[in-house]
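Retro notes (design track)

What went well: tokenization of the new backbones is finally stable.
What didn't: we kept losing track of which sequence belonged to which structure.
Fix going forward: every design gets posted as structure first, then sequence, in one message. First example under the new rule, 148 residues:
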């Protein structure tokens, strides 16, 4: 006799991807990313989750972060140098990246049509309205350390 395992509830939510079912650990991870709002690295997320659940393994946290990214629950910010960072904010926004410490900050700015057109002309193509801008600079914290 053959059984449809999706109807037995053994592997729920298969339509959304492998292991996409609810878990307490995943809920903890997403809450930490949402509450931090600092675009934490996977290691920073792991350290915070470890404070809540000391038995959780690093591989469990990293695997669940990847699932959250795949499902679109969390955005991954690929960094040119250093570890990737993660963002819960799904509103259209841009990022400022500190070249010294690697911190990522949100900023909101509606790109004028004239600037979009100039970028498109230089790229010889169309840019998506969903694309965000990343600006590199030095944050106030690092700048004040330099002045001391």
């Amino acid at each position: 006799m053959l059984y449809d395992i999706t109807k037995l509830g053994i592997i729920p939510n298969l339509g959304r991807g492998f292991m996409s079912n609810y878990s307490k650990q995943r809920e903890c991870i997403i809450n930490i990313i949402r509450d931090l709002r600092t675009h934490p690295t996977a290691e920073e997320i792991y350290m915070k989750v470890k404070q809540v659940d000391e038995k959780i393994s690093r591989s469990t946290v990293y695997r669940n972060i990847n699932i959250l990214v795949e499902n679109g629950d969390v955005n991954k910010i690929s960094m040119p140098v250093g570890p990737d960072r993660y963002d819960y904010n799904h509103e259209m926004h841009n990022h400022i990246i500190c070249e010294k410490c690697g911190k990522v900050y949100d900023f909101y700015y509606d790109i004028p049509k004239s600037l979009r057109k100039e970028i498109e002309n230089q790229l010889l193509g169309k840019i998506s309205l969903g694309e965000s801008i990343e600006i590199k600079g030095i944050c106030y914290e690092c700048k004040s350390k330099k002045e001391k």
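Added context from the reviewer: The radius of gyration is 20 Å.
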